[in-house]
């Protein structure tokens, strides 16, 4: 495993993080709780020091599974990240955003109870809430820090302007934007965060599975599957372009005798402005494969070739 220092937080974290959206078991394919717990522990056993979850992943189920996985001494080995500001609408339908003071305090208590911990290391605002002043949101975050319930604050899916606005009212130590070979839209934000010593936790690192190289025709996911509704990689013309990218990735993978997914993981984590890449895992085998990506590195020339292909394809 490789590690990077987060200047603003004053800690070192692994360049790979455990992602737990899928293990919530809602609109993300089949998952097994026992396999999920084993996968999380396998990642930690292989040097991963960050586990990322959220209350809306399966309406609390992901946090509960993470809590089970972190028993038996595993909690002390990692930095725990979870989120606030998004809730399941009790009336059904879409998720609702709520980042008011009382909601945040209650969300924090609920997350700690589900996970079975008295401390959240990295507490992240999941999405911007245009209906709540950021000053009110940050007031709750600052109070949670003072109370010793959270160590660091983060924001996810924020623009640079939103981040700077939030920092007017308190310190933000981490950001969590989407970033991968098939989505570089947050690159400017990541570069800014690097210059400010802010830790970057990138999600969607394997492009909703398409960068594993195992998907070569459009999958028949359920119409509500998040891999279709949240990501755009299976829509045209992007899908066809990604198939061309995979040919280049395959050639590099063959040279190193490694899976294609490890090319994608190394491409992201070798970027100076990516502190840690979040990758979801469903079982021990996937966990081992992801972690073994750090047994080798892409050469500078291989990174240049991949970047050249990405520029030409304009994904």
From TrEMBL:
CDD domains: AKR_AKR11B1-like (cd19084). PANTHER family: NAD(P)-LINKED OXIDOREDUCTASE SUPERFAMILY PROTEIN, NADH-SPECIFIC METHYLGLYOXAL REDUCTASE-RELATED. The keyword Oxidoreductase applies. Keywords: Oxidoreductase. Residues 16-310 form the NADP-dependent oxidoreductase domain. The keyword Hydrolase does not apply. InterPro entries: AKR, AKR_Detox_Biosynth, NAD(P)_OxRdtase_dom_sf, NADP_OxRdtase_dom. This is Aldo/keto reductase. It comes from the Bacteria. Transmembrane segments: none annotated. It holds the Pfam family Aldo_ket_red.
